[in-house]
Amino acid sequence: MRSLHKYSEYLIFSVGVNLTVIPSSNVDVNQSVTLLCDISPEPPFLFAIFRLQNPASTLCLLEPNNGGCKNTTDPCRIQYNASCPSDTKYSIQVYVPSNWNGVSVICQSLFDDSNSVTFFVKGTVIRFKFPIVIRVG
Fold first, then answer.
1. Has residue 10 got a pLDDT over 50?
2. Using CA atoms, how far apart are residues 92 and 24, in angstroms rounded to an integer?
3. What is the pLDDT of residue 3?
4. Closest among 32, 16, 17 to 119, alpha carbons compared
5. Segment 81-105, tens digit of pLDDT
6. Interval 110-127: pLDDT, tens
7. Which of 14, 46, 17 is closest to 108 using CA atoms?
8. Strand, helix or coil at 5?
9. What is the pairing mode between strands 104-108 and 48-52?
10. What is the four-CA torsion angle of 109, 35, 119, 4, rounded to 10 degrees?
């Protein structure tokens, strides 16, 4: 999808941000997955942010630096094995806990958000965002 953004006095066109979960978002409790964020090379982006949407929290902020990540915090480097192999590809590895069942994750750049990916953790109960009343009898 192509979007239009106004930044300062310039109009910037971007073709988007794509988030992929490898091997899948349908996982076992504590299964390791890789979140891969592909960002359009135009305009050049300065960083990528991996975020949980429900509940809202930031997992990692990554800045590319000649095939590595610069200014990356220890939790991102150590806990999530952060990688910035190019200016357009970013990745982290996470172990999916049971409380991530039904939780969505996105990748953000300066101008765009990626598609949302929702985790389905096997053997857990789905959390609903609204009250459900079940009548028996």
1. no
2. 14
3. 45
4. 32
5. 999 988 889 999 999 999 999 999 9
6. 778 899 999 999 987 655
7. 17
8. strand
9. antiparallel
10. 20
